[in-house]
Every structure is written in C-alpha cells, then in structure tokens.
Amino acid sequence: MRGVDLARYPFDFDLTFAALLMGADGHVYHRYGGRDERGADTWLGERSLERVLTATLAEHARARPASPAPAARAPLVLETVPAFVKRDKGACIHCHSVFPAFYEEARAAGTWSEDQRWVYPPPGRIGLDLERDDQARIRAVRAGSPAALAGLEPGDRLVRAGTQELVSAADLMHVLHEFDAAGGKLALVVARNGSERELSLALAAGWKRGTALEFSWRPFKWGFTPEPGFGGQALAPDEKARLGLAREAFAFRVTYLVTWGDNARYGEAARRAGLREGDVFLAVDGQRDFASLDHFHAWWRLEQRPGAEVTLELLRDGERRTLTLAVLP
Fold first, then answer.
1. Which of 11, 28, 116, 194 is the most buried if burial means most Cβ atoms within 10 Å?
2. Does residue 98 share a domain with residue 22?
3. What backbone phi and psi angles, to 5 degrees, belong to 32?
4. CATH code of the domain in which 199 resides
5. Rounded distance between C-alpha atoms, residue 208 and residue 254, angstroms
6. Model confidence over 260-284: pLDDT tens digits?
7. What pLDDT, on the 0 to 100 scale, is given for residue 62?
8. Does the bond joining 329 to the residue before it have cis omega, within 30 degrees of 0?
9. Is 215 a member of any domain?
10. pLDDT tens digits for range 131-157
C-alpha cells in the first residue's frame, strides 16, 4: 500500500483480494472481492468475475462520458498518517495495516466510536445471503432480519442500493460501509417476476455491530484490547480423543504467552495466574463454543471488560484445572 492513494482507491483493506473497476476519471463502476466469516473465497469465482466485468463494460458504454466525474478528494497515503509513521520501517506496507492506523488516529483524537470497528458489513449483517456465481441474486433471507422486514425474498435480483447499481456482493458491502451507523432508510430496487420494485431497508441505530464470529477473520482484530495474553495451536481431532475430549470440542495447546512488546502486561498477567505453555485451553467462564482460535481472540476483545476476573478451564498433564485471570485495561 506504499504510495497508494487511499482516498482514490477505497476498499476493504482486510481482504485477501479486492478489485475496483474504474473509469479513467476515477469513477468506480463496481467492486469485486469481499468475504465473510465463511472463508476468503466466499465471493470469488470465475463466473462471478465474468459477470462483473461484462456488466461494467456495458455500463461504461451506456453511461460514459456523459455522467459527471466524481468529486475530487484530497490524496491520502498511509505513510503520512502519524499513527503509522511511528512504526514505518520503509518496507512493504500490507493492506491490513490501514485500519489499525486509522483506529489509533481516531483514538488519539477522541473521535473513535464502537461503530467504526464494523467496516464493510457483509450481506449477512442485514439478513441476506447471495448466490456465489450471480451475486445480484438473493439466495436466502433470514427471518426477522432488516432484509426480511423490507420485503426482500429469495430469488429477487438486487438492482440498485441508493445510487449504486449492484452486480457483486462487494458493491453492496461498500454501500453498507458508507451508510450511517446511526441508522436510517436505504432505498433499494429489486427485480421480481420480470418487473422492478422499490423497497426501503430500515436500519436501526447500531445496525453495523455484528458478532465475534463475523469479526473473527479480520486482521483488524489484533489491534484491539483487552487481549487474553496467550494463544496457541488448535488440537487435531485425534489428539483431543486421546485426551478424553470430544472430537468436535474446541481446544488448543498454549504455545506462547505475550510477554513482549506494547501488550506484554497481558501475558504477564496470564503467567501470574498460573498459565503455562503446554496447557490445553478448554473454556473461559464456561464459554467453549468457539469455531476457531480466531473466533476466541475476537470474542475476548469484544466481550471482556477491564477489571473483571475470568475463570479459565484447562488440562495439564491430563488433569483438569481452573485458573482465575484478571482482565487488565
């Protein structure tokens, strides 16, 4: 990302793949890529990419150069952001370094709010699942969700959200990213049974806030505190069985305590509580239904509050033990 104008090329900087389909004047027709907690390739495939490319060419031929150029924005490169400057070593800048730098800047300025954590909400945040190959087509609608209350149905085709024509999941996620976290009504146009319908998607205040599982895949999570101060490697099913655990149970072997860097206090607290490398972690305060280690780390950062004390359940040398750990600020 060194030298990349973040104002001109905005996208979900946590992604493994993202594409902007733009005109020469900077107008973004469509976006492609995006993901959710199901995997990095949730919305990636040759057929869906072909659809986006084809739609963009048709839109360009139809609408350009007649439509006005987008409003100019002041250039912004990450290596001029103070929160990043202090750690810039002159090497390659990874995409996932962008959100943490903005987070630190907002905190320093006193402008940070919890809603800012929830960048580029996936379709599931409003209750939609989209087809993978034809991402304008709704595959499923979750009962009781904002999408269901707006009248969206499986089989509908998304045509437009606000002023953005929709061809990909990334198009919708960008619209949701830009929409006010305080809520409001988003105008939708859908095609159903050969005709277009106008619908209104009502979103309540705080609608962007998701679950720990939704947040778990993002590298962005590592910049938040409090953190547990330890981590490790998930146990394979056979190893869990040898320890008398259910093969589907969540369990990981502690392979490190964070006793270095800016957040060393968390690892030191875990060590003082009695945690050791080699222990097998099972649960915290009875919570054990984590889908992955990433889910565990995201949950801790979202749910734990400084000043609390939590109970860790673990195995050591085949024996079950409990430890009490103080959650530090």
1. 11
2. yes
3. -140, 145
4. 2.30.42.10
5. 33
6. 999 999 999 999 999 999 999 999 9
7. 86
8. no
9. no
10. 999 999 999 999 999 999 999 999 999
